[in-house]
Amino acid sequence: MILLLIILFSLENSLLYVSASTFDTYYARIMYDDVYLYKSPIEVNEYANIYFSLPRTYFVELIESSNSTFYKVNYLSFTGYVKKDAVQTIVGKPMTPYLENQNFRVYSEQSRDMRSEPTTTSGTSTQVVYIPLYSRNLTYYGTIQGEELVDGRTNLWYYCKYSADQDYYGYVYSDFCDEFDPNAIPLNHEEVSYTSEPNFDITEEITSLPVENKTTAIVIAILTIPAIIFVFMILKGGKLFNKEIKKQTKEIQDY
Asked: What gap in Å lies between CA 90 and CA 69, rounded to an integer?
C-alpha cells in the first residue's frame, strides 16, 4: 500500500505543473502638461512625429520599453510612444484611464476641413473629410501646435474624431471651434499607488493539472495496481520458498 501511494504521488506531481507564459498589464500616469504621444521613439518635437499632447493626470497603458528614453504605449485606440520621465508607473489598472466624452463644435467656414496634419500648406492632399457647419459630433483627444492660420491668434489644433457615415480622425484649427475649453479639462483625481519601472520579461506561472490529465493519472494508477500485486506475490512466494528450503535443510541436518 505504501508503494502504491508513492507511485500515485509521483505520477500526479509529474503532470501537475505546466508552464504558462503571461504578460502583466502596466499603466502609467501622465504627470505633466504638454506630454506628447509620439509616432516614433525619437525626441523630435515636430508635428510630423507627434499625434497630440496627452491630458495630465490620466493614464497610458505600457506595452514595452522601447529604449532608455521611451515607452511604447496605448492610449484609447492609439499606439505611440511617451517619454519615460513624463509618466509614473502605477500598481494595477485605473478605473478611468482615459479622458473621454469631450465634444466641441465647428462654427466657422474656414474650420470645416479636417486634415491629416495641423497645417494647410499641403493643400487638398491632407484633407480628410469636409465637416458640416455647426457640427457637434466631434470628440476631442488632444492638442498640438501647428500652423497659425490667423495672424496673431493661435497655432493650436485639436486632434479629434468626427462621427458621420463612419469615424474620421484628424486635426481641426482650434480658433474656429467653440463649446469647448482645453484649459478646463477635468483632472483625474483617482488615488493610485506608484511603483518603479516594470519588468517586461515573460514570467512563468504554475497552473493546475487539467481534468483530462488527472483522469489519465488515475487510469495509469489503476493499471499499475496489478503489476504491484504481481511483484508482491513474487516477493512473498520467494520468501515462502526460501523458508521451505531452510526447513527441509534443517530436517536433513537433524537426521
From this structure: 18
Determine, yes or no, domain membership for 52: yes
3-class SS letters over the chain: CHHHHHHHHHHHHHHHCEEEEECCCEEEEECCCCEEEECCCCCCCCHHHEEEEECCCCEEEEEEECCCCEEEEEECCEEEEEEHHHEEEECCCCCCCCCCCCEEEECCHHHCEEECCCCCCCHHHHEEEECCCCCCCEEEEEEEECCCCCCCCCCEEEEEEEECCCEEEEEEEHHHEECCCHHHCCCCCCCCCECCCCCCCCEEEEECCCHHHHHHHHHHHHHHHHHHHHHHHHHHHHHHHHHHHHHHHHHHHHC
Pick from 82, 74, 80, 116: nearest CA to 98: 74
Cβ(38)–Cβ(80) below 8 Å: yes
Residue 224's pLDDT is: 54
Asked if residue 228 and residue 174 are part of one domain, the reply reads: no
Do 113 and 65 have their domain in common?
no
pTM of the model as a whole: 0.68
What does the pLDDT average to over 199-228?
48
Q: Do 31 and 77 fall within a single domain?
A: yes
Q: How far apart are CA 219 and CA 34, in angstroms?
A: 65
Q: What is the pLDDT of residues 215-254, one digit of tens each?
A: 434 444 554 555 556 545 655 665 554 555 455 545 545 5
**Which neighbouring-strand residues pair with 20?**
205
Q: Residue 110 and residue 116: Cα distance in Å, rounded?
A: 16
Residues 2 and 10: their CA atoms lie apart, in Å, by 12
Residue 201 lies in a domain: no
